[in-house]
Structure formats: structure tokens, C-alpha cells
Amino acid sequence: MGVPQLGLPVRWLLGRIASPDQLAIYPWLYLYAGHTGQLLGALACIAVMRRFIPGHYGLRLPRRKSYIGTAVAWGIAFGVAMTLVDYAPEISEHAAPKGFYPLTRVNILGWLSFEALFVGFPEEILFRGLLVTYLMAKVPGRVRLFQYQMSVAGVLVALIFALAHVTNFWVRPFWLALGQQVYAFALAILYAYWYEKSESLLAPIIGHNLSDGVEYALTLTLVALWS
């Protein structure tokens, strides 16, 4: 949980470069900065960890079934579901989602490039590449559901991934925040499963980017329709 905090120095540097007005208009700049620090921190941790726990940490192309097609399908489906969960009150009232969503070209490209192209890299390299690999070496055991099975480590990291979003309980209605916990845990289970089966982070990154990208594309569409 401390690795994401490595993004704070990058965000501080951004605050020294960009003006307060720019950061207020384009809050995704802070997200880019914070996740860039997180990505660098996760890669540095992997470089150190490899001395003690050798492995690929998912930083390679799939060696088995790629699960790319599955990731695309589930990513789109979860993107729609996430939109319905996160903006249920606004959708029921035909009201534009609140937030930093002015429909300028720069803002649209900024949000979509971050959510649909970038966010999966730092988060999957940290949670699946680093944490799942580490815990698989330290925590034995597997869990099974019907014909599917995966490591206990994948389930534990899915729980950590969901709890990383727990601050939404302080700022959002309880049921909406709980819904986010549920879909974050479910997605993290899928990401860990694809990682274990393919021995690569490619499918988790694609699924992660698609789910977030579809949600933000739909969110911006709702803003355009109901503003």
C-alpha cells in the first residue's frame, strides 16, 4: 500500500511546473503524475525482489493461452456495469454526472488516454506483477470454484485491490461505494486468473484499460447528453 505513495514526489514536481488553474481544469494531470511515480516504484521493487524471489513478474508476452479476447469481452462488459453502478442516481434522473468533465478536446483526450491506455500498466505491474508473484512464493494454497482454480495469493491481492478504493466510503453514498468494492474485487480476481494462466500481464492490462476506458467514454457521453 506504500508503493502508490511514491507518486507523491512526481505530483509535487507537477505542481511546481503546472499552474493551479491548469491543474484545476485538468485533474487527470495529477493522476498521470501519481501513477507514473507508482509505476516507477513498482518496477524498482521488482528489480530488488528478483534478487530474493526470481521470476518473470509478468513482464513478458504470454507463454500459454493469451486470454486477450476474454479480456476484451470482460473489459467492455465491466465498463458498462461500472458506469451503471457508479452513476445509478444520475442515470435514473437523466442528470449529468458531477465531476471534472468539461467537454473540451484536451480534457476528453486527457481522460480517455489515461483511463483507456495508461492506468492498467502501473496498477497491474504493482498488484498482479509484484504482489501476486511475491505472495505466491510466500503463501501456499489454491482455491477452487467449480472447474476453475487459482492461488490464494490472487484472492488476497484482489482483496487488497478492492480496499485500495475504500476511501470512496467517505465521499460517496454507502451503497454506491459498496458496489465499487464488489466490482473492484471481481475484476481483480479476473486479472489474477489471467495472469496466472497466461504467465503475462498483457491480458490484465488490456482488461483493466478497457473497463476503465469504457466507463469514462460512457460518462463523458452522459455529460454530453444531459448537461
Question: What is the topology?
Answer:
Blueprint: H1 7-17, H2 20-25, H3 28-49, H4 68-86, H5 88-93, H6 105-118, H7 120-138, E1 142-145, E2 148-151, H8 152-163, H9 168-171, H10 174-198, H11 202-226
Antiparallel strand pairs: 1-2
Notes on the structure:
- With 227 residues, the protein is mainly alpha-helical.
- The protein has one domain (60-226).
- Helices cover 72% and strands 4% of the residues.
- The protein is built from 11 helices and 2 strands.
- It has a two-stranded antiparallel sheet with strand order 1-2.
Task: Summarize the entry for a quick read.
This protein has 227 residues and is mainly alpha-helical. The protein has helices at 7-17, 20-25, 28-49, 68-86, 88-93, 105-118, 120-138, 152-163, 168-171, 174-198, 202-226, and strands at 142-145, 148-151. It has one domain.
Shape: globular
Q: Give the low-confidence spans.
A: none
CA distance, first residue to last residue: 37 Å
The secondary-structure element order is HHHHHHHEEHHHH
Kindly estimate the percentage of residues that lie in beta strands according to DSSP: under 5%
What's the number of domains?
1
Structural class: mainly alpha
Mean pLDDT: 93
Sheet having the most strands = 2 strands, antiparallel
Q: Tell me roughly what share of residues is in helical segments.
A: over 70%
Radius of gyration: 18 Å
Q: Give, in spatial order, the strands making up the sheet with the most strands.
A: 1-2
**Contiguous helical run count:** 11
How many E strands? 2
